[in-house]
Amino acid sequence: MSTLLRSFAFLVLAVGAVAALGNALAATPGAALPTVLFFANPMTSDNDVIRRPASGELSVAERHFAALCRGVFDVTITQDGTEVVKEKLSRYRAIVFFTAINPPGVDRDALIAWVAGGGAFVGIHSTANTFQGHAEFGRMLGANYDRRPWRTAQAPQTKVIIKVNDATHPATRHLAATFPFADDIYQFKNFDRPQVQLLLSLDPAGLDLANSKVNPADRVFPVSWAKPHGEGRVFYTALGDWEETWSDPRYRTHLTQGILWAMKLADAKP
Fold first, then answer.
1. What percentage of residues in the chain have a pLDDT greater than 70?
2. In 10 A of CB 238, how many CB atoms?
3. How far apart are alpha carbons 13 and 170 in whole angstroms?
């Protein structure tokens, strides 16, 4: 079987697995779908994919997230940080952030404690640039945003080759060993590799390592990872800044399975 056909077969199986899980959950008499809060707050960042239009309609990412949750999760979508406070966290099985800077209203310490107590936290893209001055949030997430070495005004989307570091994880099993992708590509700091299960990283062979903004000494450029935090689980993916990403079946499965894993509804080591 060719690499292309093998990748397609894995994709079909993965999408089918998500659909089957959703159908099974929905078909179980009296069973409620797992509850998920999607908190998207762009603040002053340039993440237009989560910026709502003046009409107040959902943003691009919010619309896509609602669609991929259909039949799998019972999702609440908000840009109001007061939904992420101690007395409301127990309503949800998982909290998904697509945020930046310091979103107001969030009870950050309560969130961290909730995850440590067994909750599921998922961070998308610029979430790594959230609460940068709070070390414990960064430790929970697994790293902090540093910079975008390869982005230019002429090419805001960076074309890279992504490699799968762990093909056993539910969020990566559907992916080819390496694959091209275009998105807003991050570099990270405070990435403690021994503490995380690295899932995806950039193939350095396709990068300009002579760029003066490139700084990781070990030449590991993480893209996605999973990790425990106390009794809870954390999943992070740096991808998600463009509508093309959200429309990509590979990404949709990657994110959906990452959420299921964080909720301990998909099999993989923590």
1. 87
2. 27
3. 12
d(CA 257, CA 262): 9
Burial 102-129 (b: 16+ CB within 10 A, else e): bbeebbbeebbbbbbeebbbbbbbbbbb
Q: Which residues pair with 71 in a beta bridge?
A: none
In order of 123, 182, 204, 234, the CA distances from 221 in angstroms are 17, 15, 8, 19
Domain assignment present for 268: no
CA neighbours closer than 13 Å in the CB half-sphere of residue 58: 14
Domain containing 221 equals: 3-262
**Cα 154 versus chain centre, distance:** 26
Question: Is residue 267 domain-resident?
Answer: no
**What number is the average pLDDT over the span 223-252?**
98
Domain-embedded: residue 220: yes
pLDDT value of position 249: 98
What's the CATH number where 9 sits?
A: 3.40.50.880
How many folded domains does the chain comprise?
A: 1
CA atoms within 13 A on the CB side of 190: 17
Nearest 5°: phi and psi at 252? -60, -40
- Core vs surface per residue 130-165: b (16+ CB within 10 A) or e: bbbeeeebbbbbbbbbbeebbeeeeeeebebebbbb
What tens digit of pLDDT does each residue of 86-127 get? 999 999 999 999 999 999 999 999 999 999 999 999 999 999
SS3 at position 252: helix
- Tell me the C-alpha distance between 166 and 176, whole Å: 11
148, part of any domain? yes
